[in-house]
Amino acid sequence: MQNLQLWIRPLASSTSLGMALYGCLMLAVTGSAAAADGSAQSTQSESLVVPAPLPDAPSGARIIVTADPIVIRRARELLAANRAEEAYQLLAPHEYEWAGARDFDYLLGTAALDSGRNSEAVLSLQRALVTDPHYSAARMELARAYYNLGDYDQAAAEFRQLQLESPPDYARRVIENYLLAIDQRTSGMRPNFQYFVEFDAGYDTNANGSTSDNAFLGFTLDDRNVEKDSVFLGFAHGGIWTNPLTQNLTNYNQFGFNHRRNLSADFVNSDRLSAATSLTWRQGGTSLNGTLGAFILYLDSGLPFDGDKNSHGATLDLGARQALGERWLLGADIRHGPVRYEDIEVRDVDQTIYALSLEHFFADVRQLRIGVTLIGGKEDATEANSPFGRDQVGYRVSASWLMSPIARSYLYAGSLKSDYDGLFFGTKREDTQRTLGWYLIWRVFPSQNWALVPRLSYTDNDSDISLYEYDRTEVGISIRWLSD
User: Fold this and answer.
1) Contacts for 375 with CB less than 8 Å, ≥ 6 apart
2) Residue 426 CB contacts under 8 Å (≥ 6 apart), including other chains
3) Of 118, 303, 395, 436, which residue is most buried, by most CB within 10 angstroms?
4) What predicted TM-score, i.e. pTM, was given to this entire model?
5) For residue 166, what pLDDT is reported?
């Protein structure tokens, strides 16, 4: 009976694990014998012989710590009735004088644990185990306290120690359930590296994003400044290293290479290298993110990165997301950083962009999601006489839905107005760029690592300066692979 009592209390907690087992076992196994045994124990004074001498005591003297048996008995009754808060309030005032009595520390730790005071529970239960390292009930409660605190390494160590103590079958099952839960929770906290590869092909009606006019202000334009259509081929690859730091904080490190070759407009062949590192904190429906990123862009490339360096830049992104109930998500973002152009310093800017977004999730079989984002910002030219500084304001709406269990469709549209600071050819410049696009992520292949991505996009740039007016349609299809 004594061995049974060493194990049975941990199943009487207010948590879901073990509550049902405890009630059945107390009735079917212990019966009145357990009550009689508990009553007999409660008539004895709780005591501990501690082999640590007082500073002014003779060598070998021992401290005797005792607890009032009436208080101990009442605490047991309250815990058995699942009245942990009352048990804690009964015991806590006596901690200074009774700390060190094994059963007092155990009962105080249990009451603290079941009333949500996990850190206090750890201290009391550790004292009980210092007194009696073989006190299995105290070790079980200590393991639970570590689990509640999110200290899964310590919790697992205590549960595994309990497995070595030949626990009864019901206790063994509870321990195994906790260890399984720990493994499931910590599996997402292991560092992970994923690599991706993408092959792309399509047709672009205006690969160089230029006007369709052949002349401007009476001058004939160079062919490179006139709209040029082209078939294109693309290749992209990169990776992301996910490094969980705590249960709520994760570090992401990513890099990517993007290569595009325009068969009829090789002067705008491009190679882009980008890299970023970020920290993301999540708690409930709240997430915060900070990212440092950088990029380098090359144009007129043959072999990768053998073209002319066109531009480079760096960004600091800060973002926040807050769930509003189960179906709404509110977001806010800010980006700041420099963009620098090689040999075209007049275009150098420092940009600051703001975005505020709201997304709604529909509880239907199509899993429809609709979002709207408001955009604002400014690009400050670094050259005093540069006309390329501008104020920006716009919006973007988006929607996605399941077309089938293996295909999700995405649709977006937006408008961005740019009001430039200076004059272009003696005229004030104001552009309005409208975009419309659709793409599909279709996991048509037997392996879920692969996806087929057809897409269609349209851009119309309206400007007060005809040289900067253009429209552009792009049709493409990609095959993507992402490692596990």
Assistant:
1) 353, 354, 355, 392, 393, 394, 395, 396, 416
2) none
3) 118
4) 0.65
5) 83
Q: Around Cβ 218, how many Cβ atoms within 10 Å? A: 5
Per-residue pLDDT tens over the stretch 389-416: 999 999 999 999 999 889 999 999 999 9
Pairwise CA distance, residues 70 & 42, whole Å: 7
* Other residues' Cβ atoms within 10 Å of the Cβ of residue 189: 15
Q: Residue 18 and residue 217: Cα distance in Å, rounded?
A: 84
Predicted pLDDT of residue 450: 94
Categorise residue 410: left if φ over 0, alpha if ψ from -120 to 50, beta otherwise: beta
| pLDDT per residue as tens digits for the range 336-365 | 999 999 988 899 999 999 999 999 998 777
CA 318 to CA 323: how far, in whole Å? 17
Residue whose structure tokens are 């709240």: 286
Give the separation between CA 176 and CA 9, rounded to whole angstroms.
17
319 strand-pairing partners: 289, 333
Q: Which regions of the chain are under pLDDT 70?
A: 1-65, 187-189
Nearest partner of 311 among 295, 332, 323, judged by Cα: 295
**HEC letters along the chain:** CHHHHHHHHHHHCCCCCCHHHHHHHHHHHHHHHHHHHHHHHHCCCEEEEECCCCCCCCCCCCEEEEECHHHHHHHHHHHHCCCHHHHHHHHHHHHHHHCCCHHHHHHHHHHHHHCCCHHHHHHHHHHHHHHCCCCHHHHHHHHHHHHHHCCHHHHHHHHHHHHCCCCCHHHHHHHHHHHHHHHHHHHCCCCEEEEEEEEEEEEECCCCCCECCCEECCEECCHHHECCCEEEEEEEEEEEEEEECCCCEEEEEEEEEEEEEECCCHHHCEEEEEEEEEEEEEECCEEEEEEEEEEEEEECCCCCCCCEEEEEEEEEEEEEEEEECCCEEEEEEEEEEEEEECCCHHHCEEEEEEEEEEEEECCCCCCCEEEEEEEEEEEEECCCCCCCCEEEEEEEEEEEEEEECCEEEEEEEEEEEEEEEEEECCEEEEEEEEEEEEEEEECCCCCCCEEEEEEEEEEEEEECCHHHCEEEEEEEEEEEEECC
Query: Minimal CA–CA distance to 254: which of 338, 194, 297?
Result: 194
Q: Which two tokens stand for residue 424?
A: 């272009």
Q: How many residues does the chain have?
A: 484
